[in-house]
Amino acid sequence: MSDRITAQVAVAGARGFDCNTKLTHAHALRFLEHGYTFAIRYVGRATAHSYDLTPHEASAIVTAGLGCMIVQHVQRDGPPWWTPTDDKGKQYGATAAAQAHTCGYPPGATVWLDLEGIAPSTDPERVISYANLWHEAVAAAGYLPGVYIGYGARLSAQQFYERLHFTRYWAAFNLNADEYPAVRGVCMRQHRAHAPAGVPFQIDADVVQADNLGGLPALAAIEQRLPG
Predict the structure, then answer these.
(1) Which of 37, 144, 147, 150 is least surrounded, with the fewest CB atoms within 10 Å of its CB?
(2) Full-prediction pTM beyond 0.90?
(3) What angle (nearest 5°) sits at the alpha carbon of residue 74, between those of residues 73 and 80?
C-alpha cells in the first residue's frame, strides 16, 4: 500500500466479502461491478502462508477501489478443536500486527481475531485471557482489534460484552442472534454467498451495520475513494 491509504470508518450497509484466496486487480474490479465494496483477507499466526495477504495484493485491492480489512487464521489442532493459551494470545496478536504492518495496513484500521473451534472442555477464563492478550498486542501496534465470533467460541453473550476488551464484533453466518455480545451486538454480519461469474473461488459475503452502541469497523482504502 502507499501513503495515500488511510483507515476509514466503514459505511453502514456496505457489502463486502471474505476469502482465503489471493485476489488480483482483475478480481477486485469484478467484485466492484457486482456491488461489493471491500475485501477481508487473511494473515498467518506464526509466518505468512503462500495464500495470505501480501503487500502486492493489498495494493491491488485498494487501487482497484475496494476497501480492505484483515483477519488472522484460526488455529486448528483438531480436528476440529484447539486450546487457547496466554502465550498464543501474545504471539498470535503480535504476528497479526506485524503482518498487517508489512502489508502497509494503516493504523486505526480493524484487525480481526477469528474466535471459533475451541475445545469444549476449555475454561472460559482461558478464552478471555487469550483474547484480551491478543487485543493488547494488536492495539499496541495502533490497530483497532475486532473479533469474528464463530461456532465454538465458548463464551456467553455477557462474557463477550463484559469481559473482553474488544468493541467491534463480526458474526459468523451460523451465529444465532442470542449469541451476539450483550448490549453492544455486532457491527458486521457474514452470509453464505457465491462469487461473481469469472471469479473461481469460494467467498462469504459480509454486511456492515452499526452495532447497538454505534460502533463500526474501520478499513484501509485510498483517501476519498472509499465506496459506500
Answers:
(1) 150
(2) yes
(3) 135
